[in-house]
Structure formats: structure tokens, C-alpha cells
Automatic annotation (TrEMBL):
Gene3D superfamilies documented for this protein: Phosphorylase Kinase, domain 1 (3.30.200.20), Transferase(Phosphotransferase) domain 1 (1.10.510.10)
Record-annotated Protein kinase domain positions: 51-312
Pfam family, one: Pkinase
Record-given protein name: mitogen-activated protein kinase kinase
Keywords noted in UniProt: ATP-binding, Kinase, Nucleotide-binding, Serine/threonine-protein kinase, Transferase
Family, similarity comment: Belongs to the protein kinase superfamily. STE Ser/Thr protein kinase family. MAP kinase kinase subfamily.
Catalytic function, reaction form: L-seryl-[protein] + ATP = O-phospho-L-seryl-[protein] + ADP + H(+); L-tyrosyl-[protein] + ATP = O-phospho-L-tyrosyl-[protein] + ADP + H(+); L-threonyl-[protein] + ATP = O-phospho-L-threonyl-[protein] + ADP + H(+)
Coiled coil in keyword set: no
EC number(s) reported in the record: 2.7.12.2
UniProt xrefs under InterPro entries: Kinase-like_dom_sf, Prot_kinase_dom, Protein_kinase_ATP_BS, Ser-Thr/Tyr_kinase_cat_dom, Ser/Thr_kinase_AS
Upper classification of the organism: Eukaryota, Viridiplantae, Streptophyta, Embryophyta, Tracheophyta
Binding positions for ATP per the UniProt entry: K80
SUPFAM superfamilies registered for this protein in UniProt: Protein kinase-like (PK-like)
Length: 320
């Protein structure tokens, strides 16, 4: 537990509002003035009035995520709500997430079924419910993951990233808590509030947002390359840190048990050597990590290339 508490302190965010413990929850059912919009791949409209709140799944980025049930079908969903009287940044993020989820249709991206808006400004997104939580909660409850388990998990994340990148979408905040899991160990990428859809003519972006601890080194240097960086390759660095964290059980850029502070964290990311796996890791896994955690972004492999890496091929039978 000590390691977990210290690791969680590393989730230092940029340009995201502090989360307060809101006492006025989004009223369900919604009033009749609420509007609803069906999204891609949704064949059945789910009126907001037919949703029953079962509990709170969590708070984050200026909103609340509820566990809800469709009264007519008994199917369970997750409902992310951002309040109209909340932070403007949070509202901008939920609209961005809504835009991106409407454009995606992949088994490795959390699915959006409906969106709702109220005249008061409250906005909600109805998404699939992942009943095992996130990779972060699994790490805290079950401990570290083996190489075969990580190959199964990583392949799914890379399938999602490859899909996103092929559609010019960069995530910009990939980390264990934004990777949701169900009891079948299906892993899906979630939380697109600070993601970006790149134009066809651009390969780089310059927005400095996200979680400090999982940012790639080039994202901290505003003067490099005119302040731009390749967002697709920055996602790969975040993936590498995430996978290594699941293997070693703590944030991999700092020794286990070390209390992080801002100067130490910055120096480790920008000037320290990339983390290495402990003794006992296979050569294929070591090489996979090297392909993700290159300080020079042009040396990192892309998501589609990593899907063909020997590490994933070695354990491909684990999925069958």
C-alpha cells in the first residue's frame, strides 16, 4: 500500500481543474427538457428518463461518473456527467470527448451510446460499463502482471492506439487509470477529454496538457522543434511507461518507495536514462520496452509496428 500511495502522487496534471466532492449529483431521471443524441453504431435510443442511478464510480476532470441501469432492459452503463456551473475547461473537455467518441468505432475504445444536454448546461455521456475498473485499480488489487498477461493487455491497447492514430487522433493522456477493463480482461482506451484530432497536413502538436508523470521528454521542451512534438510517438512513450509500471508495480522512472517531488520527476523524465526492466525479464520484453522508451522520439516504433513485435508474437497463444 505504501508503494501505491507514493505512485499515485505522480499523477500530476496540467491544465486540468481540481476535483471537488460535489454534493449535488446529476438528477436522474433527467427532466423532459433534456436533449439526447444517438451516436455512431447505436441502433436503440436510450432516453435519459429511463436511466436509474445505482451509484458513483468516481470523480475526475470536473465531473462525476455514475453507474446507471436502463430500467427497461436492466443493462448497466457508465454515465459521465459534467455540470453546467462547473469549470469551463471541464466542459470543453467533455465536448471534445463527445466529438471523438462519436467518430470512433473500435472494440478497443470505450463505446459511447448517447449524449445528453440540459438547458442548465449539464452535459452527460452514456458509455459502456467496464465491470473490472481500470488497470490502475487492478494493479492495486491484484499486484503486478506477468509477461503473458501483459502481452494480452498490451496487444489490445496497441490495437486501440493503432486505430486512433490511423484516424489522426492522439490520446495525450495514456496511463493505467485511463485504460478500462472488464471481467473478460478486455482492455479499452477511455478518457478523451484532452485528446486531439490532427488535421491531415499536420504531424505535430504543441498543446502542453495531460499528466506530467506519463509525458514523453520532448513534451517538456517548448523550444524544441518550434514547440511542436509528434503526438503519435508521444503516446507510445506513455504506453511504455504504463506497461512497465504494470510489470514492476510502481512508477518506473523512480525507485520503488522514493517519494517524488517536482524537481526529481522533471530531471528523471528529461535528463535521466530510460527505465530498464529488472533481472528475469525476457529478451523480447526488454527489446519491446526499448522500442517504446527511446528518448529520441523518431527512434520509437509506431503502434502498428509494435503489434508485430516478437514480444507480442511470443505470447500470441495466450489469447487463444
Amino acid at each position: 500500500m505504501t508503494v501505491v500511495r507514493q505512485r499515485r502522487q505522480l499523477n500530476l496534471c496540467l491544465s486540468l481543474p481540481d476535483v471537488s466532492d460535489r454534493r449535488h449529483f446529476f438528477p436522474l431521471p433527467l427532466d423532459p427538457s433534456a436533449t439526447t443524441n444517438a451516436v455512431i453504431a447505436s441502433s436503440v435510443t436510450i432516453p435519459a428518463a429511463e436511466l436509474e442511478r445505482l451509484g458513483v464510480l468516481g470523480h475526475g476532470n470536473g465531473g462525476t461518473v455514475y453507474k446507471v441501469q436502463h430500467k427497461r432492459t436492466s443493462k448497466v452503463y457508465a454515465l459521465k456527467v459534467v455540470y453546467g456551473d462547473g469549470d469551463l475547461t471541464a466542459r470543453q473537455q467533455v465536448f471534445r470527448e463527445r466529438e471523438i467518441l462519436r467518430k470512433t468505432d473500435s472494440p478497443h475504445i470505450v463505446r459511447c451510446y448517447e449524449t445528453y444536454e440540459k438547458p442548465s448546461g449539464d452535459v452527460a455521456i452514456l458509455m459502456e460499463y467496464m465491470d473490472a475498473g481500470s488497470l490502475d485499480t487492478l494493479l492495486r488489487s491484484k499486484g503486478t502482471f506477468s509477461e503473458p498477461e501483459l502481452a494480452h493487455i498490451t496487444r489490445q491497447i496497441l490495437e486501440g492506439l493503432s486505430y486512433l492514430h490511423s484516424h489522426r487522433i492522439i490520446h495525450r493522456d495514456l496511463k493505467p487509470s485511463n485504460l478500462l477493463v472488464n471481467k473478460k480482461m478486455e482492455v479499452k482506451i477511455a478518457d478523451f477529454g484532452i485528446s486531439e484530432i490532427m488535421s491531415p497536413t499536420l504531424e505535430s502538436c504543441n498543446s502542453h496538457v495531460g499528466t506530467y508523470a506519463y509525458m514523453s521528454p520532448e513534451r517538456f521542451d517548448p523550444d524544441a522543434n518550434g514547440g511542436n512534438y509528434n503526438g503519435f510517438l508521444a503516446d507510445i512513450w506513455s504506453l511504455g511507461l504504463t506497461v512497465m509500471e504494470l510489470f514492476v508495480g510502481h512508477f518506473p522512472l523512480l525507485p520503488a518507495g522514493q517519494k517524488p517531488d517536482w524537481p526529481t520527476l522533471m530531471f528523471s523524465i528529461c535528463f535521466g536514462e530510460p527505465p530498464v526492466l529488472p533481472p528475469g525479464a525476457s529478451d523480447e520484453f526488454r527489446n519491446f520496452m526499448d522500442c517504446c522508451l527511446q528518448k529520441e522520439p523518431s527512434k520509437r516504433w509506431t503502434a502498428s509496428q509494435l503489434l508485430e513485435h516478437p514480444f507480442l508474437i511470443k505470447y500470441s497463444t495466450a489469447d487463444n
